[in-house]
Write a structure and sequence with these properties.
heterodimer; A: 307 residues; mainly alpha; ABC transporter involved in vitamin B12 uptake, BtuC; two-stranded antiparallel ribbon; 10 helices; 4 strands; 71% helix; B: 237 residues; alpha/beta; six-stranded mixed beta sheet; 39% helix; 26% strand
Chain lengths: 307, 237
């Protein structure tokens, strides 16, 4: 039982990363009918920006200009990096996608792949091939809860992730921008006729997704403090799987599917040798999709694309 | 008020409109009648800036160059709204949310609330159903919501694309009476595009006849109703 609970804790942490990244995929897919294949690399960029921000704060602290407790540094790093990375997302949309909005879908899909490669190799050119270790901002503390070992970092990662997911779903449910995103996911072509600036909503969608990916990047850096320019690729693929499994444009779906992926991976590794983990895990997920081709909670939408 | 000169529109090098001229005056109800594929919807899309127009086209509204405005600003700054063919409601949003979304760019909260009350007084059924998803409304209610939405987003000119489509005759009358009420109370000019020529001509003051991308006739609606060519081609003899 403790063995099971131990793995459950790990699965929650792992699922948090997938779910946070999957939300960005799902929103862009829902609102703009677009697969943003650069999104995994936005996660990587977010982690590096987080590294930059945390290092900057540490440098200021060592100069004696500021003295902040580790927790505050971490919170500041997350907030500032989310804001900065959202601008990267806006830039990606502006340069890579907006000019291709009327282009064939395949062109927009390969744009994402190219932007991804540019972000990876751009990072490589900027910082070199060395791996970068994420600065430790908080001391790790382990709690023994009846044989189950939980670290403060794990609790923080899951808590921050779930808070962000709740904040996002409230934003989409309650604000007029969220309402515009839901409307746009249903019928893209009519949006301008409501006096709603379509480009602003598109940029907002990218900004929100990128901010969540940045949060995932930093939380990942806290748990596994080694960054490399290609860290976003496999994560991006898996989060993409979660987004589709969750159902088009569904916030709840992407979140649950992200956690489900985490659970399946961790529990497969619990039973089978870890080299077989993804082989078995993704065969299971493929079977789920075969029986639920529209995913868990696909939102309804109008089939008409033009006016 | 709205002045359109030499309007040409092409889809993939096929010309849909061959340079048409028309105008809408303050508070007027104007219709464009014509067969399927004559270019009626394209005309409305061009005014809403949803399709590119030819380089010799000019469109002015109150002396302003309409072509300088992006589609959302045509609605939010000029008050020219468009009720598209097939209503195109946001079926996943509630009735109230559909109306609220149309005020996305309106800052004045009090005006939004007043307009909402006006819409509910014109279409009382929408108030009864305001928390229902728009996708669950009947055809007539959907058309009312589509008009209500346009009413909320600005109402100098309302462009209506086949509002009678798919409605039972009695509902059709309801919808057109509501439009007349809006026209008289708010001074909203209406440009109506219809296949149902008789209905459109009875409702409007002036009309244009569009044939394969050219305007072939124009005049007062009651004269067009009596015109032998119009009777033969569009009113069943």
């Amino acid at each position: 039982m403790t063995f099971f609970l131990q793995n459950l804790v790990n699965a929650l942490q792992w699922g948090s990363f997938y779910a946070l990244i999957a939300l960005g995929y799902s929103m862009v897919y829902g609102v703009l009918m677009l697969f943003n294949f650069a999104h995994g690399d936005i996660f990587m960029v977010g982690a590096y920006i987080g590294f930059g921000v945390a290092t900057g704060i540490a440098a200021l602290a060592s100069l004696g200009m500021i003295a902040l407790p580790g927790w505050i540094t971490l919170v500041l790093t997350i907030i500032i990096s989310m804001i900065l990375t959202s601008f990267v997302g806006i830039l990606v949309e502006r340069i890579g996608y907006r000019p291709l909005r009327e282009a064939p879908r395949a062109s927009a899909a390969i744009t994402g792949l190219m932007i991804g490669i540019i972000l990876e190799t751009g990072n490589l050119a900027l910082l070199g091939a060395r791996r970068i270790s994420f600065p430790p901002m908080i001391e790790s503390v382990t709690y023994n809860l009846g044989g189950v070992f939980v670290t403060n970092k794990k609790i923080m990662i899951v808590a921050v992730s779930i808070s962000l997911m709740i904040a996002l779903s409230q934003f989409i449910k309650k604000t007029k921008w969220g309402m515009a995103m839901r409307a746009m996911a249903y019928d893209y072509a009519v949006i301008p006729l409501m006096g709603v600036p379509l480009n602003t909503i598109a940029a907002l969608t990218f900004a929100l997704g990128s901010a969540l990916a940045a949060a995932a990047g930093i939380l990942f850096g806290v748990a596994y403090p080694v960054l490399d320019p290609y860290m976003g690729i496999v994560f991006g693929w898996k989060a993409f799987v979660a987004a589709i499994l969750g159902g088009r444009g569904s916030i709840l779906g992407a979140t649950l599917a992200g956690f489900l992926l985490g659970f399946i991976e961790i529990f497969v590794a619990m039973i089978f040798p870890s080299t077989l983990r993804d082989l078995i895990a993704y065969s299971i997920i493929l079977m789920i999709l075969v029986f639920r081709p529209h995913g868990f909670f696909g939102e309804p939408y109008s089939a008409k694309l033009r006016l | 008020m709205l002045n359109v000169k030499n309007l040409t529109v092409s889809y993939d090098r096929i010309k849909a409109l061959h340079g048409i001229d028309f105008q809408i005056n303050e508070g007027e109800i104007v219709c464009i009648i014509g067969a399927n594929g004559a270019g009626k919807s394209t005309t409305l899309r061009a005014i809403s800036r949803l399709v590119p127009v030819g380089k010799d086209t000019t469109m002015t509204y109150d002396g302003k160059n309409l072509l300088a405005y992006p589609p959302d600003k045509v609605v939010s700054e000029l008050g020219i709204t468009h009720v598209p063919e097939g209503r195109r409601l946001f079926g996943n949003l509630t009735v109230l949310e559909n109306l609220q979304l149309a005020t996305f760019s309106v800052k004045d909260k009090q005006k939004i609330e007043q307009d909402l009350q006006k819409v509910f007084s014109i279409f009382s059924r929408l108030e009864e159903r305001k928390h229902q998803k728009a996708g669950t409304l009947s055809g007539g209610e959907q058309q009312m919501l589509a008009i209500g939405r346009a009413f909320m987003s600005g109402r100098k000119i309302m462009l209506l694309d086949e509002p009678s489509m798919g409605l039972a005759p009695l509902l059709m009358i309801d919808v057109f009476e509501a439009l007349r009420e809006i026209n008289q109370q708010e001074g909203t000019a209406i440009l109506l595009v219809e296949q149902n020529a008789r209905l459109a001509l009875q409702f409007s003051q002036r009309g244009y006849v569009l044939e394969s991308g050219n305007l072939v006739l124009e005049g007062n609606s009651d004269e067009l109703l009596k015109n032998p060519e119009v009777r033969k081609a569009y009113l069943g003899g």
